[in-house]
From TrEMBL:
Region (Disordered): 1-22
Record protein name field: Amino acid permease
Keywords for the protein's UniProt record, in alphabetical order: Membrane, Transmembrane, Transmembrane helix, Transport
Keyword Transport part of the UniProt annotation: yes
Pfam families to which the protein is assigned, alphabetical: AA_permease_2
Topological relation to the membrane, as annotated: Multi-pass membrane protein
Species annotation: Streptomyces similanensis
Spans through the membrane: 48-71, 83-106, 127-149, 169-188, 200-220, 240-259, 280-302, 322-347, 382-399, 405-425, 446-465, 477-495
Subcellular localization: Membrane
InterPro entries xref list: AA/rel_permease1, Amino_acid_permease_CS
Amino acid sequence: MSPRTPAQRVRTTGAHRARGRAETNALDDDATLHAMGYPRKLTRRFKAFDNFAISFTIINVLSGIFSSFGFGMNAGGPRVLVFGWIGVSVMVLFVGAAMAEVASAYPTSGALYFSAGKLAKRHKGAWSWFTGWLNFVGQIGGTAATGYAAATFIQAFLALQWPSYVPTAHQTVLITALIIVLQGLANTRAVQLVAVLNRISVWWLLIGLVVIVTALVAVPDQHRPVSFVTHFANNTGFTSGLYGGMLGLLVTSWTFTGFDGSFHMSEETVHATVNAPRGIIRAIGWSALTGLVLMLALVTGIGDYDSQAGSAAPPVQILIDALGQATAKALLLIVIGAMLFCGLANLTSNTRQIFAFSRDGAMPGSRWWHSVSPHTRTPVKAVWLAVACSLALVLPGWWSHTAFTAIVSVNVVGLFLAYAVPILLRLRLGDEFRPGPWNLGRWGRPVGVVAVTWIALSSVLFMLPQAAPLTADSFNYAPIALAAVLLVATVWWFATARRRFQGPVSYGRPDEVAAMDLI
């Protein structure tokens, strides 16, 4: 056998070191999970990029901005769209940083509800219960809303391609159902497939954004001047410009949801105590930067403001007027693809929350929903429960779009309130909080205070009327939907749950649960 060259020896040594680091990380990850009382059931195949990718895909600036840009044109206009994006992005970074610190300390699929139960000094079961159900309902609403948005844009494309095609509510519901079922099928496969699709989604988003921005900058003969970003418009029906502009901040808030996905994938992420919190921060940071570029491109590409603001899909109309119908249709396919990736990642995060919540016995039929397929090492039954619940939320859209909106309106409010609870409890714990490897140090408390304050203010905005005059169609049903969720959770808690659910459970000592590992 010929002797190895120095280069070969270096490569071999490097490979051994890489394998050694991976094995050490896996042992550390498993030891952390065992210390929290859980055996390992899921395959740990998510790398740092994969963990970032799921939150970046769920935030999804293409989907979020194209879905809500028209609302912003009428609620504050370019001034709020651009500067509101910057301001709210900074506030969301505070929320993400505070959540990331908690994620480093408690890297489990249970994420928010688990950390709430661990951080509470008293009534651990109640804190965990309400956080879990807010998170569950918010994520189910997010899956349904994203699928519905994709179906709406698919029909907009079909109407452009075939002018005789007339979208209907029934068609929208059927297409939404098909999308969610296909996303469920993808999630039943091995976690490697989900990781690959999320990697593709990142490049789809980034390359698609570059293509759209380049087209808006290079193709039109005329653009709005840079000073147009200060233009203000209030077509909400409310006489107060300040109120109308405050409502416009919701465009950014609607977009920045779902970054808890990195937290929920902790048990499938290598070196989760560091990679999960980094995934949260990187997803928010990159979304803030890329979203600002897209926002500026759309604002400077606006033509006839009143006509486009009053159209059925303002950003699509901007593309048509600036680039022509053929180019607009091609770019619309990029946006639709981004929405489909967004829904897929959202459903993945949703199923991990269901898996963990059931593992602790908090859901009816818990023993079903936390089982893992021996072939794919994924919680297949939890996937189909998430699909069924999302379809149940979509179904009222068959009869009334207003009814559908009322049901999914709790999506953002529920999620952000679930984000706030563990951050608030971490603040109450003070110096007793034991941080993980990724932490904010002495900045943890001020960052947490800003995060909770912003969530409180933005939640109030989400529940205020968003258009005048108030009618059955324009009424904001978010407060009613949120009250209904909290009422059901409260009645359920006092009726039975408080006697059987005491918060996150432990399956035994670290050595005992290590023996229960399925992988």
